[in-house]
Amino acid sequence: MKVVILAGGFGTRLVEETEGKPKPMVEIGGRPMLWHIMKHCACYGFKEFFIALGYKGEVIKRYFIDYSTLSGSMTMDLANGKVEVHNKGCEDWIVHLIDTGLHTLTGGRVKHLEAWLRDETFMVTYGDGVSDIDLHDLVRFHRSQGRLATVTAVRPPARFGGLVFDGDLVAEFTEKPQIGEGWINGGFLLCEPGVFDYLEDDHTSLESGAMARLAADRQLAAYRHDRFWQCMDTLRDVRLLERLWMSGKAPWKVWAE
């Protein structure tokens, strides 16, 4: 299955990190967030990626141009400039880097990829969030629903501790994930080619445009994922993800070394 990763936004809420690079290139554990997402997908056999570029897209292009060469050992003959790369551990991914416009909205970026994606089911996700979602289970669920699209619904951790009152006293202070409702769009969207009928042009939002219309037509299923999911919207999120990775217990690291 081909995977689209939306990587063209300006990342304005993370300006401390995104002034010189796009948000998906912010590093967690010395690797760009984009790499973490791709490793997750590849673990389930999804190894062909379409990266929808916009803001600072050249940074992502440069990363992948250098990736194979710099990820292995090498021998250099300084006299003649010959370089021999000893690269046995590089990922077997196919990566398409597609310029989709600087100001294009999310739905418009997907629309730019129609020529490559119109023949089969494909996945769309964001370049700023990680999860431990079982992608094979997601695909099975999508197939069972028979709809044009399935969105992964998640319940993110509450940003602030909750207070439980007993009169004018605090009976309990909670630092827990959201409970009850509070489901949000967590990305990992599976789409049939018919979704392109809901995408008009560069000004189409995937969320408030296409997905809203799909929902109105009862063509959008929801796969509920109640385990780990974390976006990277703020510097606080970056630090949280970094701590998890450095602890050796990052929930999204579902692949073996």
Quote the beta fraction: 25-35%
- Output the structural class: alpha/beta
Task: Tell the overall outline.
Answer: globular
Assembly classification:
single chain
Tally of DSSP helical segments: 8
Question: End-to-end span in angstroms?
Answer: 23 Å
- Helical proportion? 25-40%
User: What's the Cα radius of gyration?
Assistant: 20 Å
- Secondary-structure element string: EHEEHEHEEEHHEEHEEEEEHEEH
Please state the average pLDDT score: 90
What's the total count of β strands?
Answer: 16
Unreliably modeled segments: none
Major sheet: 8 strands, mixed
Explain what the structure shows.
- There is one protein chain.
- The chain has helices at residues 15-18, 33-43, 57-70, 106-111, 114-117, 135-145, 206-216, 235-246, and strands at residues 2-7, 27-28, 31-32, 48-53, 73-77, 82-86, 94-99, 122-126, 129-131, 149-154, 162-166, 169-174, 184-185, 189-191, 220-225, 229-231.
- It has eight helices and 16 strands.
- Strand 2 (27-28) and strand 3 (31-32) form a beta hairpin.
- The model has no long low-confidence stretch (mean pLDDT 90).
- Strands 1, 4, 7, 8, 10, 13, 14 and 15 form an eight-stranded mixed β-sheet that branches.
